[in-house]
Amino acid sequence: MLGKLMKYDLRSCLRKFGPLWIAAVALSVLIGLSFRYVVDVEGGSSGLITFLLGVLPSMVLFGLFVAMAVLALIFVCERFYKGLLGDEGYLMLTLPASAGAHIASKGLTALILELASALVALLSGFLLVTVYRPAGFAEGWMEFWRALGQLKLPSGIPWLIVEGVLLVIVTAAAQTLKIYASIALGHLAKKHRALWALLSYVGIGVVLNILFGVGVSNGLVGRLFGFGASWGFFAENGEITVNGLGMAAGAMGSAILMELILCAAFFFLTRYILKRRLNLE
Amino acid sequence: MNELVRCTNLSRSFGEVRALDNVNLSLPGGRIVGLLGPNGSGKTTLIKILNGLLQPTAGEVRIAGNAPGVETKKIVSYLPDRGYFPEWMRVGDMIELFADFYADFDRVKAAEMCRVLGLDEKLPIKTLSKGTREKMQLMLVMSRAAKLYLLDEPIAGVDPAAREFIMRTILTNYSEDGTVLISTHLILDVEQVLDEAVFLRQGELVLHESVDSIRERTGGSVDQLFRDMFRAQL
Question: How many domains does chain A have?
Fold first, then answer.
């Protein structure tokens, strides 16, 4: 059922964000071209042309990225709130799918949206520079890989990078599920549910901060993250040294574990409310 | 007779208000049942509990032996008293969604009903009028060969011609071994098709009897009995 639910959640996501992603990529290429053929011509261009064809489109592109981030946040909240707890809930929650499948579908779609938007932003930057200075960019890129190949990386570094990527993903998932849990908690109120959802979000943050503070004061957090231990990165003559590599990997692992625990807590809280305390108006 | 729905000591409160008060009800399969009562008598609350959209404060419900959940949703076809279409979808998307999730959905029947309603599958739902959306919702619900149809106020707020269309659509499309539970306060429009009548008053079940028995016992119609019983409230 999860796959079927995701099919429709992804479709609604693509319908909204597909055009934005295409616009961002197309605009990057256009800006790259305008830099290359108009703004950066030999002898220089007038200030107005530079502004109209260089600065202005760049500002539009930046605005588009900001809009994309804001719209993504609104989409994540709206699809959960309207899709499950609004009128659409009468359709979705009477489908033969479990509450857990609904939350997982919405959560995975949100995660895909967040990662895809980040990739589109990277791709846009990449395209802009490539179109602007194809030869220079290719050289720079080759140089980067050559330098990277010459670096003497300790064997634990790739694992640390994998952990870093995992941490970004589970943190995004935990933040998304925190939003869902807050909306679900707001749903328990008789009136002003959106306001209660917002207060729940703030409340969860406060509770987590208190718990973290308690963890710091009793030394648990210090032990988990290796605070006070001398781990760090040092580069000298192309050779990277990492002090306490195992400790760094352990700290990153602890962070991943903590985010996973948060994911589970938010997921089961939301599932409990959808399953046992649902009250569609 | 095979029992399809059982409510045992079912209650639901909203603060001080008891929307359902200790309801005990058993419905067999293959019947058309009118869930009748004035506004605010608990009809929608009961239907929402049967759909798992609301949890009872006390008591329990069973549909084909199961508490409302994934298994019951496979055999229940629900028409709510409001529009539930996602705005971004087209008519065809909704048909595809029903076909994806419900094994008992009949695409051929849905296509035929679309033709009767003049609905093009490519039409975006947001371009449809309120009345057409309601008919489309009914078309989807009645294209299933469900065991239990829960129809919440299907004829409220529509003109007499549309009521006739809706009732005809229900009667010509429901699966005959299934039970249809129609909630309404417009008894005259449904009385002719009912096998049984369930009366709710302020959350209490005050009558559950076959329509033939009511006519025989009172010498009048279900509508007349309803008017007599609820005169003070109406």
Answer: 2
Burial bucket for residue A179 (CB in 10 Å: 0-12, 13-18, 19+):
buried
Q: Domain boundaries in chain B?
A: 1-75+152-158+177-234
B15–A97: do the CB atoms touch at under 8 Å? no
Percent of chain B at pLDDT exceeding 90: 69
- Between CA B69 and CA B77, with CA B72 as vertex, the angle to 5 degrees is 120
What DSSP state is assigned to residue A191? S
Chain B residues with CB under 8 Å of A279 CB are 54-55
* CATH level 2 (architecture), domain B1-75+152-158+177-234: 3-Layer(aba) Sandwich (3.40)
Q: Contact at 8 Å (CB) between B147 and B75? A: yes
Distance CA B86, CA B10 (A): 32
Quote the minimal CA–CA distance from A91 to chain B in Å. 6
Residues A175, A161 share a domain: yes
- ipTM for the assembly: 0.92
pLDDT digit string, tens, across residues A35-83: 777 766 555 556 677 667 767 777 888 888 898 999 999 999 999 999 9
A16 touches chain B (CB under 8 A): yes
Q: How confident is the model at residue A172 (pLDDT cuts 50, 70, 90)?
A: very high
Q: Is B175 helix (H, G, I), strand (E, B) or coil?
A: coil
Name chain A contacts of B86, Cβ cutoff 8 Å: 8, 12, 83, 88, 91
Tokens of B164: 């006739």
- Regarding whether A232 and A189 lie in a shared domain, the answer is yes
Interface with chain A: mutation pick from B17, B70, B82, highest number of A CBs within 10 Å: B70
Q: Model-level pTM?
A: 0.89
Q: Is some CB atom of chain B closer than 8 A to the CB atom of A93? A: yes
Helix/strand/coil for A271: helix
Per-residue pLDDT at B234 exceeds 60: no
Nearest to B195 by CA among B38, B28, B61, B7: B28
- Dist CA A127 CA A71 (whole Å): 23
Span B211-221, pLDDT tens digits: 999 999 999 89
